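It is worth pausing here to work through a concrete case rather than discussing structure prediction in the abstract. The textbook approach is simple: state the sequence, then state the predicted structure, then interpret. We follow exactly that order.
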Amino acid sequence: GHYYLDGEYTHKKQYTVNSGVRMVLDLRGYKLTTKDSRLFLVYGYAAVIDTVGGGRISANASTANNGGAVLIAWDAVAMNDEQDATFAMYNCTATLEKGRSGLNGGLFALANNCTLKIYNSTLLNASAAERGGAIYTNAKEAAVEMTDSSILGCSGPTSGGAIYAMCSVTLKNCVFEDGREERRMLQAVQVVGGNC
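Step two, the predicted structure:
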């Protein structure tokens, strides 16, 4: 279905988009956040858009192991079923309120046969304890696509300050910056065994 915000909204727990379900959420310039978890667990198709401008999704990632804001088909059931889950973000900002993801993918983590699409958006101030300050996948059959977007102030101290991926990564007109230390972003995108 198609949903929209009519004011700031705080989730109490993560929202699950099941297999076969198609959800589009229009932020309409408002902020969607969570108290103690990631925002979305996606097994189907989920898109967050902003038709007004200034919309933001924000998670408190301290309780999430992988994918601080969005986890795309990442559990034993989804992995065995090899679902084709997709999360798309258009014309908005994604950030972490506080903390970092417990392990990998400060904002997003995805499994095999899953796709992450980001258009005209900003991934801001996200960090992971290990890899992929903003985006992480160790799945070879996944895809990450970013167009006209920015990753700013993200860090993954082990590797992939912004993106760590073992799959195909497509970047068009994207900017990567870290205002704290330039050398942290020298390995902003680390693609292992995939194409960039």
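Step three, interpretation. The chain has one helix and 21 strands. The two ends are 33 Å apart (CA to CA).
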